[in-house]
Amino acid sequence: STWGSSLSLVCCRSPMHEAPLHPLGPDEVWHKECLGVAFVFALSATVLATRLAWRHWVSFVNPTQQIQIVRIVMMVPVYAVASFLSLAFVEHAPVIDLCRDVYEGFVIYSFIKLLVDLAGGEESLAKLLARSHAQQHSVPLNYVLPPYRLGGVFLFRVKQVVLQYVFVKPAMAVVALVCEHLEVYGEGKWSLTGGYAYVTIVNNVSVTLALYGLLYLYMATHDELHQFEITPKLLCIKGVLFLSFWQGIVIALLASVHIVHATARYTVADVSIGLQDMLVCIEMFYAAMFIERAYSFESYRATAKASKAKPLPLLERLQTLLSFRDVYAETRECLLGSAPSWTQFNGPATLAPAGKADKLKSH
């Protein structure tokens, strides 16, 4: 179909044959046009997000919170630039996509850290959660899983499911690279003999667990932390991850039924990846506008002016931003070590009595 052919001309990947085509052939024309569109959106998104990160950087009065905010905001330029470069520099696309995948899990971790910091730390948040009764899982899991207690153990489990994604996502990206090198990956093909199906399933399970834990922590804290406007903050992250992951699945399904297909020059895998990269560039522009409102720097600038406190020295701010010691410490504590002391603070194991107001009942 004409529409299917148009979709298939989105990107420029590996040639299917060595014979050169006419420089103004349809594949090259579409590739240049789509690169132009992707460049405009990616550049605009990068400028907006970098400007917001810089404003937080200048008003760096609360390092424990703003370091996480800057990391989350930088998701936009990382995604936008990586997706554009993946379109423009085909030979380096697998490595570029790997960098983007590594950052994806890191963003979810940063949001969890931000929630904990807003609540005053792990022990304060554990005590806050322990005030509530046990909660039912969402439908249909509530029919097969018992109610879960809120408190320190709950927070510890949430951290664990989020941190596993920080490592599973890049690990699966490396597996995909190896399979592609061995020519057994089969991009977009749901075959038992190819690596694509297995990598996709593992990624799907991993991200579902991470987002499930993230959502439940949000539901348990949004009333107490409503003054920090955590709902739009969560929607920014969930929206970006949801679109980037599931649109890849949809594109693969379209390829499997030959709506997205190969052209005279490019394979169906090339076209699928290119279409995904271009969509991400466009989406990051709108994500940047949303993030600018959700992670505003105004409150921190007002605090800096009111307190007249001097921000950290430039070098120290840079070291704080680039240091990943917190990730290392969290990993050792949650995945390799024993449960911390704040896991002793837990709420009752029973549900709220019938007729008593339950803040999470509507969820």
Task: Walk me through this protein's architecture.
By secondary structure, the protein is mainly α. It is 66% helix and 0% strand. It starts with a helix and ends in a 27-residue tail after the last helix. The model is unreliable at 1-24 and 359-363 (pLDDT under 50).
Strand content: under 5%
Q: In this structure, how is the largest beta sheet organized?
A: none
- Distance, first to last CA: 44 Å
Rg result: 23 Å
Instruction: Count up the helices.
Output: 13
Mean pLDDT: 81
Shape: globular
SSE order: HHHHHHHHHHHHH
Structural class: mainly alpha
Unreliable stretches, pLDDT < 50, 5 or more residues?
1-24, 359-363
E-strand count: 0
| Helical content band | 55-70%
Key traits:
single chain; 363 residues; mainly alpha; 13 helices; disordered C terminus
State the gist of this model.
The protein is mostly helical. The protein is built from 13 helices and no strands. The chain has helices at residues 2-8, 26-58, 63-73, 75-88, 93-118, 122-129, 152-181, 195-221, 230-256, 268-294, 298-307, 314-322, 325-336.
